[in-house]
Amino acid sequence: MEEVKKVKKPRGIAHLIPGKCIACGARCQSDCPEDAIEMNDKGEPIITAVKCIGCKRCVKICPAQALEMYFTPEEQKILDTMTDKAPEEAEVVEPGLKEYRGVWIFIEHTEGKPATVSWELLGEGAKLAKTLNVELCSVVIGENVEHLCQESFSYGASKVYLIDAPVFHHYRTETFFRGICYLVEKYKPEILLMGATGMGRDLAGAVATKLQTGLTADCTGLDIDEKGYLLQTRPAFGGNIMATIMTEKTRPQMSTVRPHVMELAKKDPSRIGAIVRESIDIREEELPTRVIEVIEDASGDQLDLAGAEIIVSGGRGMCGMENFSILQELADELGGSVGCSRAAVEAGWMPPERQVGQTGKTVRPKIYIACGISGAIQHLVGMQSSDLIIAINQDRNAPIFEVATYGIVGDVFQIVPAMTERIRELKSKKGGSPKNGSSNNGPSGKE
Amino acid sequence: MFIYISTIIFAVAILLFCWSCYKRFRLLMLGKSVDRFKDFGPRLKNVIFYVFGQRCTVNHGYRFGWNHLVLFWSFMFLLIANTEFLFEGLFPDSVSFSMLPVSLYILIEIASVLALLAVCIAMLRRLAFPPSYIEARSMDAFVILGLIALLMVAFFGLHASEIAKGELEATFMPVSNFVASTLFSDVKQETLNDYIEAFWWLHAIVLLAFLNYLPYSKHMHILTGIPNVFFKSLTKVNTQIREDFKKGNVFGVGQINLFTWKDLMDSYSCTECGRCSDNCPATNTGKSLNPRLVIHDIKANLLKNGPFFDNKKAPVLPLIGKGGEGSVSEEVLWSCTTCGACMEVCPVSIEHVPKIVDMRRNLVEMNAKMPGELLTFFESMEQRSNPWGIVPSDRVKWATDITVKPFEAGKTEYLFYVGCFGAFDARSRKVSLAISKILDAGGISWGILGKDELCCGDSMRRLGNEFVFDRMTKDNIKILTDKGIKKIITQCPHCFNTLKNDYRQYGLELEVIHHTELINNLIKAGKLPLNVNGADLGNVVIHDSCYLGRYNGLYDVPREVISSVTGRAATEMDRCLEKSFCCGAGGGRMWMEEEGKRINVTRVEEALKKDPKTVCVSCPYCLTMFEDGLKSTKADDKVQVLDVAEIVSMGLK
Amino acid sequence: MLVITCVKQVPDTTQVRVDPVTGTLIRDGVPFIINPYDTHALEEGLRLKEKYGFRTVVISMGPPNTEVTLKKAIALGADEAVLLSDRAFGGADTLATSQVLSEAIKKLGEKEEVAIVICGRQTIDGDTAQVGPGIATRLGYSQLTLVDSIESVDLKAKKIRVRRKLEGRHEIVEAKLPAMIAVLKEINSLRYPTVPMRLMAEDSKATLWDNKIMGLQETTIGLKGSATQVRKIFSPQRASGEIIGEGLKDPKEVSRLLIDRLMEKHVLSL
Q1: C2-220: what fold?
Q2: Is residue A113 domain-resident?
Q3: pLDDT (tens digit, 9 = 90+) per residue, A136-173?
């Protein structure tokens, strides 16, 4: 374009830095205006040099910074002589985005019992709202849930949008999603956060699709950038990498946030705020879904291993069936489930459905505590992709320590009860019950 | 009149016998074809060795085998006498006993006495020292033994009365003569005539009854035993036949007519001696598998369904079903460790394991039916080429702390095929390190394939997943040929057997050597600087790997290595060498759960009887099973399990 | 009537290692597999086919080599496989993905009525669990996530009854068809393909639908239709292989160190 100058500024050719591609799903190929990129079987780009016009779009879009511009030595020389910089393209801010103001937190509850993650989100939301200098609001939808408004205030919300009607008695995607969409379209928040729980994920996916806006799942970190955009950080690729994601062109910016991660807001029952009552016309008979029955899991029931977030597992080192009770106690305190190795099943100490490993269940809990398990390969393959592994074993050379995040070399029969005791001690200090973030029961706010 | 009656009775009885045999033969022909005719010489040698030498019958410490040997040889001589008798019955005028050379008489006499004795011993044994299973005392057995005894009694009665009457020269018939002089000396001439006739008819009826009873009893082995040995596999039965994966084909054996005719002949030949079950690790630990019954069920199924196939109708009894006579249950099939102990001791060379694998193939390939644990195992093998589904790049982790060169064609002599256990399993990785240390000390030029190494596929084949095994093999062969590999050292006897014997079917001829064999060669050649000192190993008990020993005949090698290193011979367990008891992991059992009394615990308890400080193994499967078993029996603080290579590496100067 | 199962071909993320020095992903030798949750969706589709006589179609959006994955679905018993592949579909987030998938379902529905769409709970590479709800919302289907059992399907009344697994409870929900069901792994146990089916599948072909056939607006699909952008990617800080309280004798002290560490790292909160 700069025909006035004698020497054309070399544009270079895009090229892949070996080993950096994460096979994100062909963003570079998709963005290339010249169709100069093909993907190989590993999901990595192959750039056809003759087709590349050096537009840098692929370099900019690559989330892993795996692409760069390549210049020949001659080109590099020319580049070095050219000191003047072309002005960067000015960012075009989408019109209309500025209308959206405020940080909203969806208060999750089960028939009026709030989920703890909601209060965690209010804590985090308060920080974001402060940075943006906007209001922090709660959204409460349900039947007879007004008590959640006051609780929201005490956890830091200054306003609550409330829809209270019999049709919202049970959570149903259809009703809640319509309620939220109605509120968002009317009051236009810039950020909407929900817990990354079963309900939150069910609802957020529907809401974001309806509103045609961006949604980031299971975030573990939130921040605001210099332009005021929400930076949402989450593990990706099976937790092997972290990605920071943003929604630039649409509003609200939506995230579901992993329970446990954010700090619980300080509760101050003296705080007050405004309740905005809204109603929406949904008739029961036009709804496609009906909750027929709710079956509460009996409290004595063992949690299913596959779905457990915390697993306390015992092996041959437990020395006998009766000793599994100390693991059960620890699991109970943590809100987890008890698993075991093949050896424990073979010895008849535990039933086969509790077995973790090659011939048992493959589990991926947030925390896996291996007690008296040496770590035979048959066990390791069933649990090694757990987010965090704690190994307790007497043998310092046991293979389990190779996969453990934290290891304790010692006597299981002393360490495990000591851990349980420590947790109880901490709990009694706080005066609360254990927080299992994805659990809806246990109104931890009531002291 | 008398002449005609005997001719008619004999002719009818013989024709009936031929008809029975023909019916049995027709059923045999329902089986698929298999070439068992080539190499006449070696086959004849087998017959002489195993049939006339009765090698398998008397081997393996079966004392009553000698009784069978006596009975067998007596029958050989009596065959002559009885053939003559049959001809005499058919053609009374033209054939007579006197046509045989007189010198044979004495042999026949001795044979008859021995036969009578043997039969009595056999009966006594069944009554006084019965074998472990109840069918040994069946009516079937006593009927046959009774018939033989009766035949002998008639034989002596006939000849004694003929001698007493002076019709027969007594010189070469001492026993008959004795009977004549003691029992018949006072009998009148006319009465003697009646005696002759009566004994002759008794002999005739018993013989004809015996003949016609044979095809319907377990004593059919008298007829099929010899051909069965003749057609036996000329090599050790250490592999399975390949399948052709074409559309429209049927895979595995789910119906009796999908077995080969030799398989069916095996089922005819079973003598129900029960030695296979005596030695089977599954049977011995109370599993539902009993190899004798598997063979019996195949026969029963054939007899039941055969006529329907003959008339192109659908079979009425499923081959693989709920169990019960004539039907093999799935549980039975999955219990086999393919250890081969059954085949090793079978006196009539029945090949049990390939039949079980054939039926597993049907379950896996045609019906996708298998224990739940195998689903993940199969997926891992197919996708990641290792049993646990671990990422291939982890295959080099075992060698993190040492320098290992990749195999380079032309530069490296041996490929060290580490194997899945050697590469991934924490315990076996130590064995890999020991082997590499020895190879370096012995000045061997070796390299590895690293992350490119694939699983050999042994378990897949034994579990009946031939389709995936076939693919894995082809991938493996491509890598091995592309890299120009000629010589391979394996750590695992299963890799060893698969690379050596299974891959040969694909045209790949490699020099495959198990690490114990190479180590032994190095020691013999004086290339390993060893400290002979077995003090800290204590009493070393040796355990044979099935795939090294029974499958490939390598019994001496690990023993020689142990004595070279420790300075004394290893302690043998009660069941050792050919009769060694499996650790329980072979045949894909490693990847399945085991119910009831555990095979490895049984074997460990056996080892503990010898008060060892060290149990020496040469297979990663055995290593794992022994370590597990020792922990279960709480003996792991007193007894250690070591691979042969570890023992050697500890003794390196 | 159709049952449509949505599957995705993913790298087996459980096999990915992170280079401890450079922090980059080691993807060498990591295979592409059917997303494990989707295998249960496929299985459920096949069971519905066997029980109610549906026709089962498997659809997947992905690069051309996804066909291998789809052939596996055919070997397991799917009647038809449709591969949605176009460079314009690349770089899609969940919003743009659900657009392509729902349009494909609409297109399939033109020929034969769609009764049920089944998705896996989430994928192991993205872990979002958002595509299923996206499809349901776009198509206006009943949305049933976290399903661990399909109780019954009433084709006459066009209703389905499922059990949803929630935290601490189960819920029996009845919904009108057509419905989108996102299933958990616990819903069924998988089958293994027979050899005759595999041989048949080897000769089969997935129907390829590119954007010429789909005719979707470029601003609604792929990278351009995505509402989220990845700003950056970095490797997580991992405390790996740390022995807590090395040398300490007192179990109480060691336990305190461990629990405090967990609290500090926000892995555990009480």
Answers
A1: Rossmann fold (3.40.50)
A2: yes
A3: 999 999 999 999 999 999 999 999 999 999 999 999 99
